[in-house]
Amino acid sequence: MALNQNGKFILIDASSMLVTAYYGNLPKALLFEKDPDRRVKLYSQIMQNDKGQYTNAMYSMMRTILKILKEQNPSHIMFAFDKTRNTFRREKYPDYKANRGDTPQPLKEQFMNMEKMLEDVGFPVFYDDTYEADDIVGSCVTRFEKDIPCFVITKDHDYLQLVSDYTRVWLIQTKQETADELQAKYGASYGWVKKLSPLPDKAFEVTPSLCLSEYGVLPAQIPDLKGIQGDPSDNIPGVKGVSSAAIPLLARYGTVEGIYEAIDGAGSDKELKALASFWKTELGITRSPMKALVEHRDTAFLSKELAGIRRDYPLPENLDDYRVKFDPERAREEFTKYGFKSLMEKLG
Q1: CA-to-CA distance for 269 and 114, rounded, in angstroms?
Q2: Do 152 and 141 contact (CB within 8 A), yes or no?
Q3: Of 81, 86, 154, 245, which one's alpha carbon is 20 to 30 angstroms from that of 251?
């Protein structure tokens, strides 16, 4: 199929969007309360409908979605949620994401209700017991990116590995000022003009060349980078003490496998010392990572595997299954149900 230049496929990391919406629309008293018991007592201050269902995250997320539909006018769309942390990654590494606390009950409730609302108003929604949202999005991008331009909306840097000549990641920043600074830094050099190509709020568009310029590696090297540096947010260990050496090593050898091929090619202690000396003089690595890399080889490969997005999630094969079929009347019913009066006006 020829690339559909007139279409636009937006793929949304819905879990990330909902979590951001939840914490962005919490009462300040609850947001800054550290004591768990006191936090629970403040739940009553969270936005609710007349049936007592929590709605603060759902409201903010739906407001964002309506704005995206209006400004971006996508022809195709899909939403991917994380359903559980007990995925295939935790089977490989039980401590994967073990550093994360339990999801607050008001947010947990809204996950289920938001998934159903999106489905009811006509959007394709996906979640799975084994795969994470990024695997679902990655599989979808891999299947369709050569048929239609793809744009991924997320805050998660893991998704940068999906960036290609056909796919862009609209990486959501914490503040609009940060997105504006990135745009000012790269916009002129890369020919990106905000007036001609508007982005979602707080978003910065990442292309392959921008990924290399801003993050030090090409998109395909993101799993390799995390294989060496680790990822504290997901509790991926990486190789301790090698963080600063990761980018120059990957610039030289390309992949984690390439780094270890160089190490294995040095057969003696003398040759290993010569290699470490080469890294210092030619790559600018002042503190030798050799010992840590040799001792933690298995951890490096495991970390890379954990960070890699799978591309084999079974999805509907027809692009038309993702066509925007938003139903304003069903949305009106849902907005009435959840008390989203101010969103009614945006339905026309």
Answers
A1: 58
A2: yes
A3: 154
Tell me which amino acid residue 42 is. L
Taken in order of first residue, the domains within the chain and their CATH numbers are 9-155+316-347 (3.40.50.1010), 220-307 (1.10.150.20)
The strand order across the sheet containing 150-154 reads 125-126, 76-80, 9-13, 150-154, 167-172, 203-206
> How would residue 2 be classed by pLDDT, with cut points 50, 70 and 90?
very low
Whether 145 and 164 have beta carbons less than 8 Å apart is answered as: yes
- List all residues 6 or more positions away from 112 whose beta carbon is below 8 Å from its beta carbon: none
User: E strand or H helix at 40, and its extent?
Assistant: helix 36-41
pTM score = 0.93
* Paired tokens of 18: 């909902």
Determine the 3-state secondary structure of 235 from DSSP. coil
Q: pLDDT tens, 259-290?
A: 999 999 998 889 999 999 999 999 999 999 99
- 253, pLDDT greater than 50: yes
Q: What angle do CA 125, 142, 252 make, to 5 degrees?
A: 130
Could you tell me which of 344, 305, 343 has the C-alpha nearest to residue 135? 305
Q: Is the pLDDT of residue 43 over 90?
A: yes
